[in-house]
Write a structure and sequence with these properties.
homodimer; 210 residues; alpha/beta; 10 strands; elongated; DNA-binding
Amino acid sequence: MRDANAPEVVVRRLALYLRVLNATSADDKNYISSQELGERAGASAAQVRKDLAFFGEFGKQGVGYEVGFLRGEIARILNVDRVVRFVILGAGELGVALARYTQRRRETEHGYPFLLAGLFDVDPSKIGQTVDGTAIEHLDALQDAVKESGVRMALITVPAQAAQEAVNASVRAGIRAILNFAPKSVSVPENVRLHNADVTLDLHHLAYFL
Amino acid sequence: MRDANAPEVVVRRLALYLRVLNATSADDKNYISSQELGERAGASAAQVRKDLAFFGEFGKQGVGYEVGFLRGEIARILNVDRVVRFVILGAGELGVALARYTQRRRETEHGYPFLLAGLFDVDPSKIGQTVDGTAIEHLDALQDAVKESGVRMALITVPAQAAQEAVNASVRAGIRAILNFAPKSVSVPENVRLHNADVTLDLHHLAYFL
DNA sequence: TAGATTGTTAATCGATTAACAATC
DNA sequence: TAGATTGTTAATCGATTAACAATC
């Protein structure tokens, strides 16, 4: 990896490029140009080349990028060339839906890297129920579950007022990356990555353009 | 509104500021400084002041921003000072979860502006079922539903391969803003706003930091 | 070889931060 | 009035775009 300090936006576009390449695999084209990759991912050709240059040289002048090779390289850079285990905190509507959604994609999509390793809640009436074969456990069991299976990623789907505590519990358990769906800003230590995925925030943003 | 051409990032932060102000209402503080608003929204004080300056002057020197007033002004700017009707296309796991989620927030949260106006699918076995009182209709009924109720916003929760067609149907029906949850880049005409909310993309992005 | 497209450098553009006069 | 904080301008920083030599 040439540069570990690639900007946030570059990493985000890398994920986008990978999605395009995954959708291209079945095609009969072996090579793709920065031009076409950019078009299909919503970026300029120059941007594609500059983004990739943060991590190495993956193309051939006059030809383009070998689809399978570039896919493998980007997957490696994003750490999705292996199984990535994650847990969901909060077995409400959204948590259960995301559990089912990721399970289904894992079943149907070759190479889908994300694997649900646990589903946690504090509601006694939910604990013990299963979602697509994964039992809902009490939040107190998180620490052990994370340690046992080496999970480092958590999705937070608890109500707003419980979000910070769920995040704290994740951090204590050794989680390194958190995707927060709760409509609440939460704090994490410097060594933990946090992304926000509050749907309501997107709705507000979009409403501006109405 | 002083400037309709505020950058994307500014509008996004506006939504964040509003979320903080909504959470502040119950407090006994009448005024909030750019410093505190920034801290609680994850922005710098200078950024808060500069962002707000795109739209007008809302503060008092030496004092700060009156919480209720600023909340009202931002709500107005974001067009969420009134009911915003939206539809969901795709009554799968995620679509149904989002339908329930928004319905619940509307019931429990004073001033939550988003109201589900319809839920659409093409699967005959789903059509006619109801989700929290909203009947699942066939996608063919979208056009009429949008025209009748003045809906201008749509959430796309169909499978990737159906995403572009769902978007096209939305555009034909007169939808102006689309939030796309399908793991697929889709195209829209210039006059339609599109945001992407593909969870898998966030997971890929986060995995980079593991 | 000729044509095409990469990787990279320089130029442009835009956003963030710092600083401070205005003023509540 | 004195202290505090806004609104705004100037300085800095970083990302995007344009251009082109290198080379497959």
